[in-house]
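Two folds, back to back.
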Amino acid sequence: MKEIIPIQQIAQMIRVIRGEKVLLDFDLAPLYGVTTGNLNKAMRRNRQRFPSDFMFQLTAAEAESLIFQFGISKGRGGRRHRPYAFTEQGVAMLSSVLKSPRAVKVNIAIMRAFVKLRKALETNRELARKFSELEQRVGKHDEEITAIIEAIRQLMAPAEKPKREIGFHVRETAPRYRTRK
């Protein structure tokens, strides 16, 4: 069965805000095939289905941070209200509020993305725990094994993105001289 939206695409949209893994309203709306305004309108009509652990509105500071991080527009033509963040349970509740075949398919894909993210985090925690145990067993006696463990830890660490240089790059070319005949 072909997925309506690739899980990797959804996983990239998941953000951690206030210690919760959430999807923001403006990321969810295109997935469901509705406008952000209509998604929020449906949520407000069914407010009793969205307690604070299912959905919350970002504070002004959090919204401002999003503007700087992701280039969300503000002012004329932009949002007039702060975004809403939906937890995994809130996203599950959205499928019952939006009531369309697409909403059900999108919801399944989103739930799979949350599960995949949880598994990846658990795998990393387990690997880090095993390395700590190994490091304690080896102790300081064998420097070579300690160096190998440290090298593996550095490989496990998330790669730092290279910083882009500011300015123009000019290629050096040989000067062209005209010869007179």
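---
second:
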Amino acid sequence: MKFSVVTISFNQRQYLEEALCSVVTQDYPEIEYIVVDPGSTDGSRELIESFANRLARVLFEPDQGAADGLNKGFQHASGDILGFLNSDDVLLPGAMRSVVHAFAQNPDCDIVMGNGFIIDAQGERIRRIRAAGFTLDRYFYGGATWLQQATFFRRAAFEAVGGFNVNNRSCWDGELLVDMVRKGAKVKYLNQDLALFRLHAKSITGSRRHSEMMKADADRMFSLSRGRRWTALDTVRAYLFRIERILTHPGAVESAIRARMRRSY
């Protein structure tokens, strides 16, 4: 199987080299790596150019945001299996070989979700994420656990939904998964650590600067999927789904407590 990975880069020079190296040093031979940068001014483009002989394609052109940049990158992808990595995140050694093996052993699955870690700006691991329970209900009610950096999908499933929604500026990755699952995509969980998700002051998740936009996108996705607006009963359901996740997810409570303790220092 051929693997295509897209990295979107924009002014993350301090983390970018680690992200690029984590892909080009994978031990799986058939990797097509595409990097998209709409206009970095911090030296990122020069760094990307220094990797040119190890990249399948580099796109230096404006886009309408991350989702649009990813779509542009995947338009040039020819792999059977697709994945995407932000310029401040990291793939762990052996990840791609393990993912391809999981797809080969499960020909009826369309999405493979693995485990990984949240790391801080310095790269220290602060919390482990174990993928489990991705259904539409669990996604909307907060009961699913998944890590985008450790999630991969078949090309056919991606093309069936038309790629990313370019109007989504906060949770385009989640909407892609929701769209694929709504189309019947089947999920396989791989109990292996595949990636590192970096939280820092300038990241979208870490800065929380898009919280209102994220709520609007979540409300829109819920209404589109359910054919109605969120109600008080849905708030109760969300509470119950989160309790279920804590009770059925080994180590969830301990890792959450440790993460909170670290933030208090």
